[in-house]
Amino acid sequence: MSETITQQALRALVDEWIGAGTKVAGPSYVKKDLCQYVPLTSSAELLLEGFIHPRNSVKDFFFPRHEKIYEYTLKGHEVELADMTPASTPQVIVAARPCDTAAVAILDAVFNWGEKDEFYTQRREAATIVALACVTHDSHCFCTSVGIGPDAEKGADVMLLPLDGGFEVRCLTEKGKTLFAGRTQPSDKTAVIPEGPKVKVSPEQVRAALEDYDNPLWKTATLRCLSCGACSFTCPTCHCFDIVDEGNAHGGCRAKNWDSCQLCMFTKHASGHNPRNVQGQRQRQRTQHKFRIYPDKFGEVLCTGCGNCARNCPVSLGILGTLVELCAEMPKTVGESK
Amino acid sequence: MSNIYMPDLMEVVEVKQHTADVKSVKIKFKDPEKQAKFSFRVGQFGMYSLFGEGESTFNICSSSNWKDHIEFCFRKTGKVTDALWRVDEGDTIGFRGPYGNSYPMEAWEGKNLVFIGGGIAMPPIRCAIWYALENRAKYGDITIVYGARTPRDLVFTDELEKWAEYDRVRVIQCVDPGGETPEWKGEVGLIPNVLAAANVPAGNTAALVIGPPIMIKFTLPVLDRMGVLAPDIYTSLENRMKCGVGKCGRCNCGPVYVCKEGPIFTMEQLNALPADF
């Protein structure tokens, strides 16, 4: 037995949420061939099939690319500050890919350790995430290599699994149950989800390969990297940011803006010294952060295998390729012996 | 609900120019209650804001025993410090902190202390020196080796003279060869060489070395030959930071978030880290 909903009923439900003032976001074609997670004004914009992975990720709705953290007004020697912590407005993310919802669960750790980042946590607490299982994948997908899968439930409040003409609905949390209460029909059909992409690397193997800090691979394999940051900006788990002032002589705001460890100024000291002066060091940092530093600190790999880094890279240099190359160099036993 | 990026407003109490491009600034909380409650440990740092220009990271270079103000020191070298250069008494700036770990002043009790600083590195050492002198009985002999390119690049020179007057304190000042002036009475030479020639007794010693990477690199072998062990040599990693609270992902050195687990590390800890600094 399972609970199901027809596509039509789901769209009606989405329109109801929008009508009730809830902020709703989901995948949509913003222009020809460009599918992104965007705020929706109607369920007609929502994509429920026929796409692999949007070009951005759902982190945009918890950790926006630009956000004011406070405003300041200058009055002679005096300064007035106005806190801009967002009010907790309910939001629903619908049809999020499992690799994106898992990423949000992974990001919770960094935004909550020690001091809480209220900008993230407020939005997170007020959000309900409805995931949509994948029935197809492309050559960039590698979720199964990092412990996620086409119907992984991590981070999701509800999981929708495509069935003929509708979806099997699995409500996983109280939030999810509330959202779909009375909207699903019992059915004897259960969805069958394909296995997903073939496993290409294992996090343990990558972790072991990363022990070799001076691997010449970082010099050779990353030569074509343009240092544009597209991989980080579209990555569901990359969360580095900058803090800058934007204003004039009278006032303005201080803002948190996305930043990327791939950009050359990222770690540059005022003295001119730069600990990560060349692109190879920056690529190494990104991989180390995802497969060694974050797992050691927070217990989870900072990558969900969505493949966006490769999909959006102007020189086809996704992290998967680097990982495969890194592990190929290793004697097979190293990863397994750990 | 609290905004962890929100600074406290501070009043500039005093600005002092040390060299052609270094100033130190005394600030106090506008809210007297916050000033009374504020405490930190020497070695910790803060995020200082000039609204409209941005935020920068500096050590709190005053002693934690001074309750009516805190101090920071900077070299005019970028957007924020260029703007801070224009700050005057009575102006308002922002402050977040204190952040990071601190010098193990308790663990250093009963030990001889060697402070070695190059150029603009004196401020983060100064707070520890004052703290040790204010608790003079708890520490053994104190040796301060401070060098800069020329006599005009030395900061807190008036305090160097004061420190030398304390019991069991030796202050060695030096300038780089070629940087000396006819009036210069201190040593001439690079810090590692001056330290090697100074005959500093090294038994039961903790050393704090802060300065440009090249200075630290050549000072370490000298300390090693003197017999100071890696767990007893401390330094401060001054990585670029933005948030100060382990979120923005900028300051890590290998697995270590410098803003949370640093900035103070022993050489033993640094030797275990990848060369990412």
Average pLDDT rating of chain B: 93
Helix and strand content put the structural class of chain A at alpha+beta
CATH class of the largest domain in chain B: Alpha Beta
Poorly predicted runs of chain B are none
Oligomer: heterodimer
Please, how many domains of chain A?
A: 1
Computed Rg of chain A: 21 Å
Please summarize the sheet with the most strands of chain A. 8 strands, mixed
- Count of helical segments of chain B? 8
Strand content of chain A: 15-25%
Q: Which regions of chain A have little confidence, pLDDT < 50, spanning 5+ residues?
A: 332-338
Beta-strand proportion of chain B? 25-35%
Walk me through what this model shows.
The complex is a heterodimer of chains A (about 350) and B (about 280). With about 350 residues, chain A is of the alpha+beta class. Chain A has helices at about 5-20, 100-110, 120-125, 175-180, 205-210, 215-220, 230-235, 280-300, 310, 320-330, 330-335; strands spanning about 1-5, 25-30, 35-40, 65-75, 80-85, 90-95, 125-130, 160-165, 165-170, 185, 240-245, 250-260. Chain B has helices spanning about 30-35, 80-85, 120-135, 155-165, 190-195, 215-225, 260, 265-270; strands at about 10-15, 20-30, 45-50, 55-60, 70-75, 90-100, 110-120, 140-150, 170-175, 185-190, 205-210, 235, 265. Chain B has 3 domains: about 10-100, Elongation Factor Tu (Ef-tu), domain 3; about 110-235, 3-Layer(aba) Sandwich (Rossmann fold), CATH 3.40.50.80; about 235-265, no CATH class. Chain B is α/β, with parallel strands linked by helices. At the A-B interface, strand 4, strand 5, helix 3, strand 11 and strand 12 of A face strand 4 of B.
